[in-house]
UniProtKB/TrEMBL annotation:
This is Succinate dehydrogenase hydrophobic membrane anchor subunit. The chain crosses the membrane at residues 30-57, 77-97, 117-136. It comes from the Bacteria. Pfam families: Sdh_cyt.
Amino acid sequence: MAYGTAAVAKVDSPRSPYVRRKTTRGNYELYSWIFMRASGVVLVVLIFGHLFVNLMVGEGVHAIDFAFVAGKWANPLWGVWDLLMLWLAMIHGTNGVRTIINDYAQRDLTRGVLKSLLYTAFVVVVVVGTLVIFTFDPCPPNAPEELLASFCTA
């Protein structure tokens, strides 16, 4: 075959109307992108509220101990607040790392192993964190009295 005689792929004219091609992927990546923006905004509010209450109100960082956490989690609002912050942060972070893995892992096996490790870490952290929030006992038996919250009876 001589130079210049090979079959050339047809390129549409720049002025031709755009024809959307059907894809089988659906809108998962679009919804993932929208979720990242929305959860990022909610996380900013949750995190700064968390930091303000823990560091600015009262005695600041020096007051954070077991009794502080016990007193805070005695109120259901703060349990739900911290649970929502945990879940949103983990889903947001996992989705971001999933996107990075998809962008940079070239081999399917590597991508599969990395995503499996990512999803395993996600499940472990979310399950353990949720269990800690829901099973937290603010007044554990045989605890030193100076560490207990003020509402605990010794």
